[in-house]
Specification:
This protein has 220 residues and is an alpha/beta fold. The protein has one domain: Aldolase class I (TIM Barrel), CATH 3.20.20.70. The protein is 40% helix and 16% strand. It has an eight-stranded parallel barrel, surrounded by four helices. The longest helix is centred in the first third of the chain and has 17 residues. The model has no long low-confidence stretch (mean pLDDT 92).
Length: 220
């Protein structure tokens, strides 16, 4: 797990999510999550289907935000769940044992519960202030200490999300995250491919500052 892009077309400077995904793949992204809150399920499926072949060809994991039904229809690699989504166990029943299931958390307690429930990875945040996602006050700007505490509490990999940029990504990983997940750091960049490379380089620097490492993979 290194660089994880979450799409959001209304934050893509007039470009389509398909265009952003293409550039991120060229820049070496590891995971793509389709997250299009303003679109219908049918429209989300269309976006997912349009990037399924290029992500598969590049060996990039394709994840769908929230919608297990869209993940099934798009033959995605998995789904990412939040507090208001289906329980992990139910999503597993629908997607199968080989699917990759992520869970958003912001506390050690939440991280341990998600791991116990069978999550394959976590999205931890919001690490810093962010305008890209609506989060509750207690989930906002949680800081690097929580990242470290979660890294010591769970065995599954996790990405830090929320206000992450090439300038601070190395700090997030050095604190214990296995990678970073971003929206605007790539989607709003003038050159999304270059931004993806910069994030990947920052993650590598962060990993070099510690010994704990992991990769984002589904159940074996």
């Amino acid at each position: 797990m290194q660089t994880y892009l979450i799409t959001q077309e209304n934050l893509s400077a007039g470009r389509t999510s398909e265009e952003i995904v293409e550039a991120a793949i060229a820049g070496g992204v590891d995971v793509i999550q389709i997250r299009e809150k303003g679109l219908s399920a049918r429209e989300q499926l269309s976006v997912a289907e349009s990037v399924r072949e290029p992500t598969a060809s590049a060996d990039v994991q394709l994840i769908i935000n929230d919608r297990v039904d869209v993940a099934v229809a798009a033959d995605a690699d998995g789904v990412h769940l939040g507090d208001d989504d289906l329980p992990i166990q139910v999503a597993r029943e629908q997607l199968g044992e080989n699917a990759l299931i992520g869970r958003s958390v912001s506390t050690v307690k939440g991280a341990k519960e998600a791991e116990n429930d069978g999550a394959d990875y976590l999205g931890v945040g919001a690490i810093y202030s962010t305008d890209s996602k609506d989060v509750d006050e207690e989930q906002h700007n949680i800081g690097l200490e929580v990242v470290t505490n979660i890294s010591e509490a769970v065995e599954i990999p996790f990405v830090g999300i929320g206000g992450v940029t090439p300038a601070n990504a190395a700090d997030v990983v050095a604190a214990g995250a296995d990678g970073v997940a971003v929206i605007s750091a790539i989607t709003t960049a003038e050159d999304p491919e270059a931004a993806t490379k910069q994030l990947s380089d920052a993650v590598s620097r962060g990993l070099g500052q510690r010994t704990r490492g992991s990769s984002l993979e589904g159940p074996q």
